[in-house]
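FORM 12-B: Structure-to-Sequence Request
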């Protein structure tokens, strides 16, 4: 082996016939997406369990207590968020299954998956969009949790405003980075 061979890029295609560029990198990316969705799904259920309707806020003024409309919105946002995370995870799991079947030597030809690169890209994009939408609805639900626990935003409580501002700033920044990364990955 000479020195020029050592500098060649390594192929990460999974073993098996007919892989056509379906790599372990795709499976790793999909695994990461499913793991993150699982963590966010836990956050959905924690948000529902922490905030109950009729709960008094820590603000101390009854006019700052959240009403049933905030609790209703919380529940709706949590359910929609969970739905997007579940959609994203199921799409990602389906793609992983297809990639693994496509690249497996142990599967009969009749059961081998035939996944098109365009379908893989669209599926990964759909899964990423599902995660982003789930995060947005989780953000809205967390704002409602904050209002139930710390008092309504309309009361102008410093703790409520700071908590919501921090949450919205950090989550929106992280989502912007995530979306930019996805855009870059799909255009290069």
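FORM 12-B RESPONSE
SEQUENCE OUT:
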């Amino acid at each position: 082996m000479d020195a020029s061979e050592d500098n060649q890029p390594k192929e990460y295609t999974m073993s098996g016939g007919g892989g056509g560029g379906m790599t372990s990198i795709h499976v790793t990316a999909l695994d990461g997406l499913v793991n993150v969705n699982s963590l966010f799904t836990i956050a959905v259920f924690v948000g529902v369990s922490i905030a109950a309707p009729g709960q008094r806020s820590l603000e101390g003024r009854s006019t700052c207590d959240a009403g049933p409309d905030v609790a209703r919105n919380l529940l709706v946002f949590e359910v929609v968020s969970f739905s997007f995370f579940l959609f994203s995870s199921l799409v990602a799991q389906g793609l992983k299954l297809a990639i693994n079947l496509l690249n497996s030597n142990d599967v009969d030809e009749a059961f081998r998956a035939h996944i098109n690169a365009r379908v893989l890209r669209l599926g990964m994009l759909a899964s990423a969009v599902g995660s982003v939408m789930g995060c947005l609805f989780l953000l809205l639900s967390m704002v409602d949790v904050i209002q139930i626990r710390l008092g309504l935003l309309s009361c102008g409580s410093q703790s409520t405003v700071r908590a919501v501002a921090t949450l919205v700033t950090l989550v929106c920044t992280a989502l912007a980075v995530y979306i930019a990364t996805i855009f870059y990955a799909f255009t290069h």
